[in-house]
Every structure is written in structure tokens, then in C-alpha cells.
Amino acid sequence: MAQVSVNIAGRHYRMACDEGQEEHLMRLAKDIDSRIGQLRTAFGEIGDQRLTVMAAVTIADELYEARARIRALESDLEGQRDARASALARLEAGEEAVARTIDEVAERLERLARDISPAPVTTIGMG
Question: Which of 2, 16, 37, 53 is deepest in the core (most CB within 10 A)?
Fold first, then answer.
């Protein structure tokens, strides 16, 4: 496990993370520190614990909204997949109908060709 030292709200924390995740963890900590700083600017010195809780609630709210958007997008995607499957089924049915019609027309043309063809002439030899 890797170790990372981060600074959040003026306090240093040493945290463990998976190898290769150090930069990601540092970005997350920086984002949290920035949010706490923004809240401190907006509300003043109301206490680190209160600011940290407010930042956590803000982040949780954003996460909740993001998950709701993901669910809506997944639902839309499922609807699009269903519509696509339905359209493909209609297309296949249409192609089958066209193929049947072509076969029927070909049979009619063959019958017409037979009907209008002159009868074969047979010659009887005399001889």
C-alpha cells in the first residue's frame, strides 16, 4: 500500500491507498480542502467540525444528484435499446415480407411466361 500525506482544513493527514492511486487521493483531498475553504469564506469561522460536516453534506448531495442522473440516463439507454430492438424486428419483418412478395412476383412471371410461350412444334417424319 502507498502512503500519501494530505492537508485538509489546515491539518495534515497521512493516508494509505492502493499503489498508483496517490495522485487521485491527493486531488480528492485538495477538493475537500477547497470546499471547506469556500464554506469558511461564506459562513466565517463557525468551527472546523461544522465546516467539515457541511462540506461532507454538500459532497453527499452532489453524489446523490449524480447517481439520480446516472439512473435516469440508464433508464433512457434501456428505452433506446428497447426501441432499437423493436425497430430491428420491424425491419426484419419488412424484409421477410418483401422477400415473399418478390418470390410471388417471380412465380407469377414464370406462369405468365409459360402461358404465353408457343407450344413446342413437333414434326413427324415421313419416311
Answer: 37
Q: Rounded distance, CA 71 to CA 60, Å?
A: 16
Q: Tell me the C-alpha distance between 74 and 69, whole Å.
A: 8
How far is Cα 106 from Cα 90, in angstroms, rounded to an integer?
A: 24
- Domain residue spans of the chain: 2-113
- Of 51, 17, 25, 19, the closest CA to residue 7 belongs to 25
Closest CA to 36 of 23, 50, 25: 50
Query: Rounded to 10 degrees, what is the CA torsion of 12, 16, 21, 27?
Result: -20
Q: Are 17 and 25 in contact (CB under 8 A)?
A: yes
Q: What is the pLDDT of residues 47-104, one digit of tens each?
A: 999 999 999 999 999 999 999 999 999 999 999 999 999 999 999 999 999 999 999 9
Three-class DSSP category at 6? strand
